[in-house]
C-alpha cells in the first residue's frame, strides 16, 4: 500500500512549525509511524562521533546504539551517502538486528553543507515493504524535515 506522499508532504510541512532540529526530528518520527502503513520502527541516527551513528529520536522498540559506518544498512547509508532500500534484511550479511521482527528497511542519509548530519531509518515487519515510490516519497519527506530544521547547530 503506497501512501499519499503529496498529502503527507503538506502535512509534515505544516506540523514542523519550529526550526528546532530536536523537536522536528521527534515530530517527524511520530508522524511517520502514524502516516506510513506497516512500519515497526522510525527514527534518526545522528553523526556525532567519527565513523559512527548515535541513536536520536525514534518511535518503536528500544534500538541499537551506536552503529559504526562499517556495519549494517544504516552504516552503508552513512558511508555511501546514498539511500539504502532493502527488501529482506536477513539477506544482508552485516545487518544489525535490533528487532527480530523487522524484514525490510529504508535508510535515507541526511547531508547538510556536504557533511553527514545523520540518517532516517525506517523498518517494516513486511518483506519487500518499500517500493521505489516509497523511497522517492520518504526522500521528499526528509527534504521537508531538512528545509524546516536548523541542522547545522546540534547540541
Give the tally of β-strands.
6
Walk across the major sheet and give the strand order: 3-2-1-6-5-4
Instruction: Give start-end ranges of low-pLDDT stretches.
Output: none
Strand portion? 25-35%
The biggest beta sheet is recorded as:
6 strands, antiparallel
Whole-number radius of gyration? 14 Å
Share of residues in helices:
25-40%
* Basic shape: globular
Structural class: alpha+beta
Overall pLDDT, averaged? 93
Provide the succession of SSEs.
Answer: HHEEEHEEEH
Distance between the termini: 38 Å
Per DSSP, the total helix count is 4
Concise synopsis of the structure shown:
34% of the residues lie in helices and 27% in strands.
Describe what you observe in this structure:
With about 160 residues, the chain is an alpha+beta fold. Helices cover about 35% and strands about 25% of the residues. A 6-stranded antiparallel β-sheet has the order 3-2-1-6-5-4, with helices on both faces. A hairpin with a 2-residue loop joins strand 1 and strand 2. Helix 1 runs parallel beside helix 4. The longest helix is centred in the C-terminal third of the chain and has 17 residues. The model has no long low-confidence stretch (mean pLDDT about 95).
Amino acid at each position: 500500500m503506497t501512501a499519499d506522499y503529496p498529502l503527507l508532504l503538506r502535512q509534515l510541512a505544516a506540523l514542523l512549525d519550529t526550526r528546532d532540529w530536536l523537536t522536528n526530528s521527534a515530530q517527524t518520527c511520530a508522524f511517520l509511524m502514524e502516516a506510513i502503513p506497516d512500519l515497526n520502527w522510525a527514527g534518526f541516527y545522528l553523526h556525532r562521533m567519527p565513523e559512527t551513528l548515535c541513536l536520536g529520536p525514534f518511535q518503536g522498540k528500544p534500538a541499537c546504539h551506536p552503529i559504526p559506518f562499517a556495519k549494517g544498512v544504516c552504516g552503508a547509508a552513512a558511508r555511501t551517502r546514498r539511500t539504502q532500500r532493502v527488501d529482506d534484511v536477513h539477506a544482508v550479511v552485516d545487518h544489525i538486528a535490533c528487532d527480530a521482527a523487522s524484514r525490510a528497511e529504508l535508510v535515507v542519509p541526511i547531508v547538510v553543507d556536504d557533511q553527514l548530519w545523520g540518517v532516517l531509518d525506517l523498518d517494516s515487519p513486511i518483506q519487500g515493504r518499500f517500493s521505489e515510490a516509497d523511497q522517492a516519497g520518504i526522500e521528499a519527506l526528509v527534504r521537508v524535515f531538512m528545509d524546516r530544521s536548523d541542522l547545522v547547530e546540534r547540541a
